[in-house]
Amino acid sequence: MKVVFLESVEGSGAMGDVKDVANGYARNFLLPRGLAAPATPHVLRRAETLAAIEAERQRVQDEQARELVGKLADRTLVVAVRVGEQGRLYGSVTNGDIAEKAGEILGEELDRRRILLPEVIRSVGLYTVPIRLSRNVTASVQVAVVDVEAPEGVETAVQRLLAPPLEAEPAAAPAVTAVGSTGDASAAGASEPGNDTSTEPASAPGSARTRGAAGEDEPAP
After folding, report:
1. Residue 72 pLDDT > 70
2. What is the pLDDT of residue 196?
3. pLDDT digits 0-9 by tens, 106-162
4. CB of 18 closer than 8 Å to CB of 47
5. Which residues span the domain enclosing 15?
6. Is the Cβ–Cβ distance between 161 and 144 less than 8 Å?
7. By the 8 A CB rule, do 50 and 19 touch?
8. Residue 201 to residues 8, 191, 196, 198, 214: CA-CA distances in angstroms?
9. Residue at 107 is within a domain
10. Residue 157: what pLDDT?
11. What is the CATH number of the domain that holds 13?
């Protein structure tokens, strides 16, 4: 059935929208509650006016939502719960819990359906959770889930979660082999003029072996 929405219905349509909906949904829900009307020529002529009214109302809602974003900026929602072994919670943190904490900061009740939590939280940690404050404005807030019985206290446990991770220590520099020592470095140094890197002692007069022309040791005559 084609209908004109007379009021905005979450997940279905905004005021002034003309949409095809299931017959049962229209007859059992939308029409009896005055949320929509069949798309007759008369009602269709009203659709443009209704859409303009809805656009202005949405503009005002978006402005109010942006003010709420400012209140949530740089704020961390702290949820202290009982925790078991390995950081697992006794129970879970739901969108209702987060809506309650956000409402305390905003100074007004927040519908839990505005918390876009993909799944409940079951472990301690720091989470980023989106909150839809109006149809066109969404804010992301940090949620710190900590043990209510943390030995160091809840505030310290939260600060530990917020602290940036320590930077890894730089790797030790590779060892440098001095020119003249055994290995490749000594071979490289031997090719430079004036660098005598030989580790053999010079032959003393009357020694049993002397250098041959090819550089190999030969028996003395």
Report:
1. yes
2. 47
3. 888 889 999 999 899 998 889 999 999 998 999 999 999 988 888 888 888 888 888
4. yes
5. 2-60
6. yes
7. no
8. 99, 19, 11, 8, 18
9. yes
10. 85
11. 3.40.5.10
112: in domain: yes
Q: With the C-alpha atoms ordered 96, 99, 101, 104, is the resulting torsion angle positive or negative?
A: negative
Place of tokens 């009357």: 206
Over pLDDT 90: what percentage of the chain?
Answer: 48
Ramachandran area for residue 91 (φ above 0: left; ψ -120 to 50: alpha; else beta): left
The answer to whether residue 181 is domain-embedded is no
Distance of CA 81 to the CA centre of its chain: 22
Please check whether residues 12 and 48 belong to one and the same domain.
yes
Q: Is residue 29 part of a domain?
A: yes
Cα–Cα distance measured from residue 155 to residue 150, given in angstroms and rounded to the nearest whole number = 9
Are residues 42 and 80 located together in one domain of the fold? Answer: no
pLDDT in tens, 4-13: 999 999 889 9
